[in-house]
Known about the structure:
Blueprint: H1 5-10, E1 19-22, H2 26-31, E2 42-45, H3 51-60, E3 65-68, E4 88-91, E5 106-110, E6 125-129, E7 160-163, H4 172-183, E8 189-193, H5 200-210, E9 218-221, H6 227-236, E10 239-241, H7 250-257, E11 262-265, H8 274-281, E12 288-289, H9 292-304, H10 306-319, H11 328-347, E13 355-356
Parallel strand pairs: 1-2, 3-4, 4-5, 5-6, 6-13, 7-8, 7-10, 8-9, 10-11, 11-12
Helix pairs in contact: 4-9
Amino acid sequence: MKAFRGVLEAHDKDRFEITIFCNADPIHLEKHNSANREEWGKIIRIRNMTDDEAAETIKAENIDVLVDLQGHTADNRVWVMNRFTAPVHATWLGYPGTVCNADIDYLICDRTVVPETSIPNYYEKLCWMPETFFPNDAIHRPLPRQIDRSACGMPKDAFIFSCFHSHWKFTRTTIDLWIRILQETPGSYLFLICRERFGARKNLIKALTEAGISADRLLFGSRVNDYAAYLDRVALTDLGLDTYPYNGHTTTSEKLWAGLPMLTYKGKNFASRVSESLLNALGLPEMIADDPEDYVRRAVHFYNNREELAEIRKRLEANRFTHPLFDADRYCRHLEKAYEMMADRAKSKQMPDHFDVPALPPRKGPFISREA
Length: 372
């Protein structure tokens, strides 16, 4: 919802009625939610309903398009989609892949994360958004503040690579790439968000020291509940490194919002192409490596050419307010068009089929002015 909130609030309320069927755990609403949810649309709680009860509740609202935001993730209600609740069923955002065994007509995606060659791997018809499938906004996020690295246990003048993704994304393939980067960039550090659970930190230290890298070069941080402080910490590092086969999604957006250049490489499935989609939508194609070898090469290159990286950082900070990635209003107009195209096809009794959402003309200037 952090990513989706700005888009919800941008809907044209004269043309679209938005109903949210909320399955959230009450603790998230009571302890972690500070938004005015009434700005998002009509909210109906279904957490304590059976699937049949939820389906009947949805039918009673007489909606045109039902969008599932979870897919096969924890605590989902995707089986409600197997009841006829609306003329069109779609899935989007929460699950980077096809949602098998569910009656879903469309997957909202883009041509980077799901190219045409991937059609045989998807049960749904593909709704290709024109710039990126991933929503963001520039209204509700604070901009990073200038703080001293010492406040986060980071060495003052060193070059610091970082990854703020959940540590379950740290596969052996990813760690081996990071080891190669550290081996070729003497004096650099790697900052990771990693909990102590299941010996994760111990295992990472073991992997690095066995490769001949001092454990002192591995810096650990814990999760923080203060979102502004989290973004401050992201901005202190020099170059973000992505993970495989599961990229950062919201985390990649947050790195880019904080002004941190982030390096990825072209993946082979939806989950490993998300950062590529986001970087393209921010106008930073040079941060997308062709393959793992190129990923290592570019990371070392930026370590050795810090003036070039500083220029990319300046461009990133400017592009936040001119390019599509954080333009919630523009994204919302594209999403509304997608809904209309789905609904119009259903009303004309045509079967679902793949389609592209046409792009609006490029903006000629910043879409918002932000100082803090």
